[in-house]
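User: quick one, fold this
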Amino acid sequence: IGAIRIHPVDHNIVYVAALGRAFNSNPERGLYKTTDGGKTWNNILFISNKTGISDIEMMPANPNILYAAAWKAERKPWTIISGGTPKEGGIYKSIDAGQNWNKIESGLPGKLIGKIDLEVCPADSKLLYALLEAPNKEGGLYISDDHGENFEQVSDDKKIRTRPFYYTNVKVDPQNPDVIYSMATDYMKSADRGKT
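Assistant:
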């Protein structure tokens, strides 16, 4: 389970980002939703048997707006498969509580994309942060200032994206959108919106 988000008003509504079984292809991957407090669940975003959902974020002022991070991943005894083509992973957005999803691609890597952690800024909900795994300098911190419609890379620092299969976490200060924390092998802080 990559993330669990509970609706701020109706606590019977819960979203669960599920990678599924990490060691093989399986149909349990995807984003699950319950509207009856967990008695029944529906898979509302399924990409493939090899692609799970690593994160789900909800806009604080409007819980019908959701962002989900899809991740193609398999852990083999001899290797780790983390990422694939943008068709096999990436960021999705819903404005109707998960009934329909649109793929976000503008400004994101176009060849290979791996694990992603998302964060909606509580102080300014038009800001969406994405710490993502991608080859070479394409990996790093991306920020959208228009509700996820377009992204711009602000850092390719390797220290904020070490061992992404295990560590890919980004958080933002709830009152200051310039203060960002990255939790990887090192615990890093930026006070200038990810530039340093």
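User: anything notable?
Assistant: The mean pLDDT is 95.
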